[in-house]
Design brief:
heterodimer, A: about 260 residues, 2 domains, two-stranded antiparallel sheet, 6 strands, B: alpha/beta, TIM Barrel, eight-stranded parallel β-barrel, two-stranded antiparallel ribbon, 9 helices, about 40% helix, globular
Chain lengths: ~260, ~280
């Protein structure tokens, strides 16, 4: 088997328009189409099941049959490039957003984004969050200039749909019920120790956290948050953030006089 | 080079859903096996689980993505990830498959077959030399479950495996379910295959369940699914292997439709009973 014959075996696994390769054999015939089909099916279904393991709530919402069909389309268009599948499917949310049969579920892609954030958190490096009391030791006149180093597990997901409510109901965290108050929801995902936490946050908090995650100083992040929420409470948000385990360090820049 | 040295007892493939049950009590399990690629994330629960397993049981690291049967060069990045895992967890054994799973830049996530020729033999020997040199340990190579054959094959599978073991010093992982699946699919005699198998190189045995279907001519086509209990004819083949080889590290694999922990443990206890009854007679 040369590299070329291996290539001719590989190509039809992903491209169903190609016929099975030549040179195959079986005791029942020289064109074992169904036997080659076992490999075809293993590749597409195996990878689709790998995605199902990563996006269980998405699968629960649309059902196994719909999910597998959607995932198989994704797999054939975007097969993995690494044998490590823990992070396979980073582009699945964008694919789902453009997947016509799922157009009646406009929130679905954001559920995929939320589950992607949870998986990234699950596998993120183990680092201890900073002690929340550290903030009290920073001189008040320096607070505006501090920046935060975030835990690799922490991320903020914004949506114009009630994704945290939908996710909670379908993951068993809260009972399934009609959503009367259909509104935008944002989420903070963290994993301070081994368990992944998903909590709903206000739009002001989301803007605040996204600014801090970009490396913006606290004072400027506060300005941005107030821009979307006049009632934004800095003290409460700072306390919540430090308690969430999303921060691993606080950087105090030396003042100009120092 | 560190030799593969699993205890000659029954073990099981570790599934995260069983972790709490396993952690509660010391389990009557000779060793646990994990798929290496599931532990290549930075941190989190997978590593916490593996640390607990490592500290309490013998460990087998089983790769499913190195693509040793590829006609291209080995993926050196992946090999160095395997080395990091071996260095961190010091498993009693590392094993991989006589198969390929990557092509060009695509990982196909299946154990794909290859023809057995002098050309493919040379290439695989080269790859195994590279793996063993890099990991500084002996690896075990597993016989595949196959659904079709290649017209260009010239070497019987047992001879192919024996020659690889002879030239590289690697051990073999004898998957008895794969033997039964392949023998049925190719209308060969599984007992005859096992009679030809170089048992002296076997460092581990695998046992698992398979699914039954038919090809377009109506001939039986078995699929290696790892999603149910071990079939009776596979137990019978296992018993005949153990009767010849004596006790051997024997793993129950159950990767899909994973049952409750007591069911999986029960399968391992069935294997252990055969090791105790048949294996010790053979060794005596």
């Amino acid at each position: 088997m040369t590299q070329t014959t291996q290539a001719s075996f590989a190509a039809p696994l992903l491209d169903r328009t190609l016929p099975p390769p030549s040179g195959l054999a079986s005791w029942t015939g020289a064109e074992p189409v169904k036997r080659y089909g076992v490999y075809r099916n293993n590749v597409a279904t195996g990878l689709a099941r790998a995605l199902a393991a990563r996006f269980p709530v998405t699968e629960k919402i649309v059902g196994e049959e719909f999910f597998t069909a959607m995932a198989r389309d994704y797999v054939l268009e975007h097969p993995p490039s690494s044998p490590v599948l823990l992070h396979y499917g980073r582009g699945f949310a964008d694919f789902v957003a453009g997947f016509a049969p799922a157009a009646s579920l406009p929130y679905l892609a954001d559920i995929v984004r939320l589950e992607d954030a949870q998986v990234q958190a699950y596998h993120a490096q183990d680092i201890s969050p900073i002690d929340a009391r550290v903030i009290t030791r920073i001189a008040p006149d320096r607070l505006a200039n501090v920046t935060f180093v975030f835990h690799p597990a922490a991320s903020t997901i914004r949506s114009s749909h009630p994704i945290v409510t939908i996710w909670s109901m379908n993951s068993g965290e809260q009972p399934l019920a009609p959503i009367d108050n259909w509104q935008a929801e944002d989420a903070l995902v963290t994993r301070p120790e081994l368990a992944v936490f998903t909590r709903q946050i206000t739009p002001g908090s989301a803007v605040f956290l996204l600014a801090l995650m970009r490396g913006t100083a606290l004072g400027q992040a506060f300005e941005e948050a107030v821009g979307v929420d006049e009632q934004f409470d800095l003290g409460c948000n700072l306390a919540d953030l430090l308690r969430s385990g999303a921060v691993i360090d606080i950087i105090t820049e030396p003042s100009l006089e120092a | 080079m560190q030799r593969s040295h699993l205890p000659r007892e029954a073990g099981v493939g570790f599934k995260p859903e069983h972790f709490n049950a396993i952690k509660e009590d010391r389990q009557p399990i000779g060793f646990f096996e994990v798929h290496a690629e599931n532990y290549m994330g930075a941190g989190g629960p997978p590593h916490a689980h593996l640390k607990h397993i490592r500290e309490n049981y013998a460990l087998s690291l089983h790769g499913v993505g190195l693509s040793i049967g590829s006609m291209h060069d080995l993926d050196r990045d992946h090999l160095s990830r395997l080395k990091s895992l071996c260095d961190r967890y010091e498993p009693e054994s590392f094993s991989e498959h006589l198969a390929w799973s990557s092509h060009d830049t695509v990982f196909l996530n299946d154990l794909l077959p290859l023809p057995y020729t002098n050309e493919t033999l040379d290439r695989i020997v080269q790859h195994i030399d590279e793996v063993q040199t890099t990991l500084r340990r002996q690896m075990l190579l597993e016989n595949p479950a196959t659904y079709l054959l290649f017209a260009e094959s010239t070497i019987p599978e047992t001879e192919f495996l024996a020659e690889i073991a002879r030239r590289t010093g690697c051990g073999l992982l004898l998957d008895v379910n794969n033997v039964f699946v392949s023998a049925t699919n190719h209308r060969l005699d599984a007992e005859a295959y096992l009679a030809d198998f170089p048992l002296q190189h076997v460092g581990e045995i695998h046992l698992s369940g398979h699914a039954e279907t038919v090809d377009e001519t109506g001939a039986p086509l078995l699929i290696d699914t790892h999603d149910k209990e071990i079939a009776d004819p596979v137990w019978a083949l296992y018993e005949s292997v153990v009767a010849r080889s004596g006790p051997a590290a024997s793993l129950v694999e159950w990767d899909d439709n994973v049952p409750a922990w007591p069911v999986l443990r029960g399968e391992a206890q069935s294997a252990q009973a055969i090791l105790d009854r048949v294996g010790k007679q053979a060794a005596a």
